[in-house]
Amino acid sequence: MAFRDLSEVLDAGLSLPYKGKTYDVAPVDAETGLRLQRLAEVAAHAAKAAESGEPLDEIALDDAEEVDLYRDALGATYDEMLADRVPWPVLKVAGVTAWLDAAVSREAAEAYWNAAGSPEASAGNRETRRAADRSTRRQGSASGTSRTRKAPAKTATRGRSSSTTGR
User: In the structure, what pLDDT confidence band is assigned to residue 5 with cuts at 50, 70 and 90?
Assistant: First the structure.
């Protein structure tokens, strides 16, 4: 088996629609990707620090670093969005979305974009997905439903004797 050219199977570009226009974000280069990955690690550390009450002064990005993050993650699309005079919240959500796509996962980026950068909306979407997953698992798995478990209990003698006989 030969390896396929990765450019044929890897869709690394990102398309972000806003007010009828789609901004195409090219994949970041390897060096930028490594830097963005490191920032993802810093963000995870910041989240842990916030949960434990540690000071965030040394961890949080300052304003210039935040703009650099968006510029690095969006590449040429950053300048295009500035030229189009998109509102600051749009640039910020686009920048974080591109960063998440490069450093974390496409799924995380889509969830963030579709929640317009709102953690509350993301949490609600996660909860909805979890509920859907639980519901789907119950419907798709005969052994995972409480109804299936109750049915053998009604015919416990028959069920036990057949399983004992089978062993």
Answer: confident
Alpha-carbon distance 24 to 67, whole Å? 19
CB-CB contact of 26 with 76 (8 Å)? yes
User: What CA dihedral angle connects 35, 37, 40 and 45, to 10 degrees?
Assistant: -90
DSSP β-bridge partners for residue 24: 15
Which residues make Cβ contacts (< 8 Å) with residue 50, sequence separation at least 6?
56
pLDDT band for 151, please (50, 70, 90 cuts): very low
CB 72 within 8 A of CB 35: yes
